[in-house]
Amino acid sequence: MNKVIFNAFHKRIMRFEKLHAHKAAKFLLLLIGFYILFTLIFRFVFSIQLIELWTAQITLKIFELLGYSGEIISGEPMQIIFPFIVVLITELCTGILEFSIVASAILATSEISWKKRIIGMIGAGIVTMLFNFARITIVLLALISSGIAQAELAHDLLFRISLLIVIIGYYAVWFYLSVKK
What we know:
Blueprint: H1 2-45, H2 48-65, E1 71-73, E2 78-82, E3 85-89, H3 96-108, H4 114-146, H5 148-179
Antiparallel strand pairs: 1-2, 2-3
Helix pairs in contact: 1-3, 3-4, 3-5, 4-5
């Protein structure tokens, strides 16, 4: 009797594991596919250098509002020349990486309707952009007030934290709100 119950229970567990393994594999394949698609779009449809310029322009505007003057030197990497330092704006400064990963995860979540996924992707773009400019501003303010050592620490920590907060945090909140009745 115990063996029969065990075998029935074991079969149910195996079906459950196969179903979830299939869902996980589908999610990962879609995630990778969408990430490759976003990478190609940002490489060939939009100009990375144009996005870097846009990032530099907004950063400069933020600091002009804070009372600092500077100028942008277009090139690779983009440069913002402040009286106290030269700031390099590279692709990693633009938020493209964070957006591409979280948007790919959202689009790969096939259990959620397309409407909610598109809205989630647009929200991811806004959140990524806002968080990215906050990160750049905090690092530069740390540089102004505390020097290069503190700014480097702030830069490294905020970049890593932003990867976690923006990607995992936004996705978790979006998913929760999307499945909530």
